[in-house]
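(Protein data)
===
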Amino acid sequence: MTQSTQISRDTALSTVSRYLEAIAEATSPSQIAALYTDDATVEDPVGSEPVRGKDAIAAFFAPLTQSQRDTELLNFRHCGDSAAFHFRVRTHTPDGVVEIEPLDVMTFTTDGLISSAKAYWSPEDVRMD
């Protein structure tokens, strides 16, 4: 069995905070992709085909640059090289505000880059204000 890399809680929380800020600001998809390793994976939502590599991750997040969002970290847990967190995203659209509160699980490198991300949510979790 391979032993997990340990990272500090502060490092994991800092990366998650920068991720949520980048999701909210999203001036360019590369801003979000810069938080990931070159060979990282994103499965959003869990059960969908994983997105692999920085270029694909940037393309996945590109639609975020088309709308205004705000994010809020609701809960955070750290263990070893991973963190699980619950957060709220509110996306402002012409038809109203779309809100979702996913649960994400991320693994990190020792320098705090995201090596994998899994988002737990389903269409039933999306609310419209």
Notes: The CA atoms of residues 43 and 49 lie 7 Å apart.
